[in-house]
Amino acid sequence: MSGSIYIIDGARTPFLKAKNAPGPFAASDLATAAGAALLMRQRFAPDQLDEVILGCASPSPDEVNIGRVVALRMGCGHKVPGWTVMRNCASGMQALDSAIANIQAGRSDLVMAGGVDALSRAPLLFSDAMVRWLSGWYAAKTAGQKFAAIRQFRPTYLAPVIGIMKGLTDPIVGQLMGQTAENLAHRFDISRTDMDAFAVQSHRRVLAAQERGHFDEIVPLIDRDGTVYKDDDGVRRDSSIENLAKLKPFFDRKYGRVTAGNSSQITDGAAWLILASETAVARHGLTPLGRIVDSQWAGLDPAQMGLGPVHAATPILQRHGLGVNDLDAWEINEAFAAQVIACLRAWDDADYCRDELGLGGALGRLDEARLNIDGGAIAQGHPVGASGARIVLHLLNVLRRGGLKRGIASICIGGGQGGAMLVEALP
Amino acid sequence: MSINYRHLSLVRKHDPDGIAWLYLDRAQSTTNTLSRDMLDELAGVFAALEANPPKGLVIASAKPAGFIAGADIEEFTRIDSPQAARDLVERGWELFNWLARLKFPTLALIRGHCMGGGLELALACRYRIVVDEPGTKLALPEVMLGIVPAWGGMMRLPALIGPAAALDLMLTGKSVDARRAKALGLADECVPPRVMENAARMLVGSGQRPRALPLMQKLLNGPLKAVVAASARKQVAAKARREHYPAPYAILEIWQKFGGNALAVPAGHPASLEAIFRSPTAKNLVRVFFLQERLKGFGKGDGKSGDFAPRHVHVVGAGVMGGDIAALCALSGMTVTLQDQSVERIAPAIARAAKLFERKLKHDARQVRFALDRLIPDPQGHGVAGADLIIEAIFENLDAKRTLFADLERRARPDAVLATNTSSLRIEDIAGALAEPRRLVGIHFFNPVALMPLVEVVRGEVSDAEALRRAAAFVRRIDKLPLPVKSAPGFLVNAVLGPYMLEALRCVDEGIAPETVDAALVAFGMPMGPVELVDTVGLDIAVAAGKALAGSAAQPPKRLMELVAAGHLGRKTGQGYYRWADGKAQKAAAAAVPAGLADRIVAPLLAATRRCVEQGVVADADLADAGVIFGTGFAPFTGGPLSYSPDSGKTMTDELSRPSDGAMVNAG
């Protein structure tokens, strides 16, 4: 059944850092703007897509099936089905994998898949106590009942629950994502300086790539006031070990090592790819940019979720008989500097490879010159649902730019999972 | 009992509640109009129902297009005497009074347009239900044709919604949508189409008392009429002079003094039907209405291929003109790619579009969002390959346009319409850069795009007829009026405006104050004085257009050149012939207007219009009148420049309209 899965094209929005207020675009605005511009440059019409699949970790209440909303807003017409997938930080990669599965099963030939999140618009929720009080208030009919209800009210009920904090807390082990990164820092003895140095490198690489125009996958956005958004705006020119050293630990206060500066940023953004079967390529006369050769999901202890890439990418390496440095480029999503460093150390650790991965020994030290060469989420931000699609898109961009052949994009997933995809560039 | 009607059908038997359903369905027409035979059949229905009364009567339309478009305007044109006018009024007045007197409850179920006589019919029913759809529009637009809503509208509308709101509708002719109609009290209910029949059945059988006016409104429609009348009269006077437009004044007086009954006005009264019939205004405005209908007909399919309905338009050039064209297309439901050299150049057009959408779609945030979704910034021009129609609106440079079109032709679909918005270059010169020059047509818009109703569709020497038809069809799709013109300097509109503005500026050079010149032309009936228009368009553009139209040998007005040299370019720089503040020209009081001033300034326009007809720029005199009215705002009550003859007795010689002369103004 399984033919090749071709990548026809892709595009994303600039990643816009949340500035403690709702950003200029809702999630569906972001996905629609990038997607409509992407579709406009194709040889096929939007209504010739077989389906649209969008990953999103936190769609707003008025666009819960955001995949369908965006398909309609992009002008795909009533007849193109649209749906939404959710796998936390890998929602965008899950959308790609769902497209692959449907193409391989012969259900679809031409699919637009990607991810989006507008974390700046994450809702504030009423606390459970407030909701209980409100239901009593609405049930109160008489003045006496209302008066009794008012007497029961406590001002603390008004304290909102910050939706995004709920989302970033593991519901099984009760730890914040940053605390799971602290677990890894502890386990692999990763110092604060190691993390901060990694973060500085991420900013420098993004700046260098911006200067060379290496983010041509970005579709600029214009808001209703005529403001132009062209670039990922979380990157900092002033990022340095000294500046980062001033920040206080955020997740394990006072005694921890993970800070806001060596973690990914809270950001809004969307990323899309167009995937096609052999049949669709022939039917529409398309010129593929690359292929997705393989993909893999893995589960692990939620408290160690940052090692997800190790668990997802290793089976791909084994299936294809590859060592970590047989790949020309790697994208590992930078949820936390500690987490990416931990992945590298785990592969280089014979005990870990033997005990956790069932290998004979260490896989070796991944050459950092091949990893995230244009930086990553620490500088660009991590709009949760979009990141998995972004790293696949950008990996292909890196491979094609360098005349390279193969790479792996991999991402850790809150809740203790990892996802990985093996990508091959076509000449 | 079964009677066969031609224009309607009456369904009684099948309704379990004993309600009669009357469906209007005018034979051989897509819309319902209240022609004489339609009114006669309605009278027959009322008689039959009185003889055998139902529990209630629901009047609805069997046409998908709407409820009733109004009276049959064709019949107006055949009125040849004041008595015939009186007869026509009497027929509808009596019929609708009969409808209002029927003993059983009546209800108008209004879906789609409900205009003029159609609304008067609905007003005579006990209840009205409007269907909540964008196409539902209610209006008494008679005033726009120079006539009055004499079939009961002037009596019943003020009594239903209060006199201030009613006069506002009757004096402006503007329409209200379904929700507004409900809010005004014009409709009893506003419902979605899925429940409209059920709502009609329940309401007509409800026994509910008809809506009554609040006490204050009752007083204003009774003893305090003078209060409302005074303020309405002031508003009318600010917009129209009685000698030009007698109808709004007549509406006011018939409501105030004659209980809304036009038949009660004695023949000698200025608000009488005789006076309205005698004034040429109504005749001219009805003519303008038909001219407008004629323009709307351009671009209709030949039946074989159907109407051209572009889904994707690509616009090159995101300046004010290109950006506004793109916004209008997106507003009209098309997908639009807007190209310019950088995204920063496109951004202001998106911001302007957002404002336009928010204004036009004010009740519907989702529709605003959809319109913005359809407007796609396209700095790389990817949209060219898939577009059904491509409009170029870049700066007026021949080489740039030739290079652009050569590239567009290579990348566009072979069946895509290629159009330029040029106002001063020859279509033929641009088309020469194409492998197939016949593909290029002109689609010439006027500023401000959102407001100006006319668009010139320009035929170059070799332009393909099918491409021209498609261009005209496109113009209709964005709800503008297409005027086919031949490629010639200034086409029609700028060619007639140029000499007119030149003459106005000459008068200023001669020492007449700009205020006086403008006052003379506003009094003549122009929407804006010519000097203010020059300031609005921009003095630099006026000079450039003048050169392009007349060649550089011409002698431009002295004051114009001085102002341009000083950098005073009009409204955009805050200073031109006038000082501008807050978007308004700061004018001193006008002096007494010298006799014949307006005629002197209008004369070159009239001559230029005649010349355009002689040279075949437009196909005939009617189209010239239509183009000049809708393109320049030339006083519609005159019927247009070619049907206007000045009363001053002066003959207009070509001496007054030297075509070789210089500075002209380009409204586009």
UniProtKB/TrEMBL annotation, chain A:
Its EC number is 2.3.1.9. Keywords: Acyltransferase, Transferase. It comes from the Bacteria. It is an enzyme of class 2 (transferase). The keyword Transferase applies. Residues 286-424 form the Thiolase C-terminal domain. This is Acetyl-CoA C-acetyltransferase. The keyword Acyltransferase applies. One of its GO terms (molecular function) is acetyl-CoA C-acetyltransferase activity. Belongs to the thiolase-like superfamily. Thiolase family. Residues 5-278 form the Thiolase N-terminal domain.
Automatic annotation (TrEMBL), chain B:
It catalyses: a (3S)-3-hydroxyacyl-CoA + NAD(+) = a 3-oxoacyl-CoA + NADH + H(+). SUPFAM superfamilies: 6-phosphogluconate dehydrogenase C-terminal domain-like (SSF48179), ClpP/crotonase (SSF52096), NAD(P)-binding Rossmann-fold domains (SSF51735). Residues 490-580 form the 3-hydroxyacyl-CoA dehydrogenase C-terminal domain. InterPro entries: 3-OHacyl-CoA_DH_NAD-bd, 3HC_DH_C, 6-PGluconate_DH-like_C_sf, 6PGD_dom2, ClpP/crotonase-like_dom_sf, Enoyl-CoA_hydra/iso, FA_oxidation_alpha_subunit, NAD(P)-bd_dom_sf. Residues 312-486 form the 3-hydroxyacyl-CoA dehydrogenase NAD binding domain. The lineage of its organism: Bacteria, Pseudomonadati, Pseudomonadota, Betaproteobacteria, Rhodocyclales. Gene3D superfamilies: 2-enoyl-CoA Hydratase, Chain A, domain 1, N-(1-d-carboxylethyl)-l-norvaline Dehydrogenase, domain 2, NAD(P)-binding Rossmann-like Domain. Keywords: Fatty acid metabolism, Lipid degradation, Lipid metabolism, Lyase, Multifunctional enzyme, NAD, Oxidoreductase. In the central section; belongs to the 3-hydroxyacyl-CoA dehydrogenase family. This is Crotonase. Residues 645-668 are annotated as: Disordered. It comes from Aromatoleum diolicum. The keyword Membrane does not apply. Pathway: Lipid metabolism; fatty acid beta-oxidation. Transmembrane segments: none annotated.
